[in-house]
Please model this.
Amino acid sequence: MILPVFTLWRRELTRFFRQPSRIAGAVATPLLFWLLMGSGLSGSFRLPGGPAGLNYFGFFFPGTIVLVLLFAAIFSNISVIEDRHEGFLQGVLVAPVSRTALVMGKVLGGATLAWLQGVVFLALAPVSGVHLTAASALAAAGVLALLAVTLTALGFFFAWKLDSVQGFHAIMNVVLLPMWLLSGAFFPVNGAPLWLSALMRANPLTYGVAALREVLYGPAASQGSGLPGVAVSLGIAAVLGLVCLAASLAATRGGRVD
Model:
């Protein structure tokens, strides 16, 4: 199974580097969000109980990296729909290749691309006031890898079910983007109204963002939020990733080819 997984993984990377516009689409929009929102809200933002001197540039930075992963996952899973229309997917499905290999190759390929773009964006940490060390950079890269696999697997599940790129974008707009908005990436959990705070705590992606913020800023970043520490947050994020992978595997075994 390793060879089919590797072949599909390499194909995703090759297609990406032949389409440089995808890099701009996945990175430029989150970068503009970060610059514009950070500039507009830095003067009035205060995080209760958070690290001293943390402005909105710093608070929004982890959420922006997750947005980079999200956009990269959406763009990479468009290839699932394109491959079906071009007949490539049907060819893979009738070949002596397990559907597990298909899912893992596509998801790992998309996740690798998302992770690479997230790590590149992580280099802007000093601009946002984050002082990266070797340990915090490695920890952040690990969290990004987990979130990249999770978001790509979730996107794959929906892409497998849909026939058109337009329909896929519509679903992403009502599923993945609200998940990101309610993850604590855009505004803190402890500053939201009670009903909104409850939705944010029920969102598994909230814990992935919280884990990334804590490895970048330390335990002070989660003080007053009521969210668990980094270990528990990572555990919840890992469970979400496993659920998304299992759902993608189950979807491919539902018999759909055309």
Observations:
- The chain has a mean pLDDT of 82.
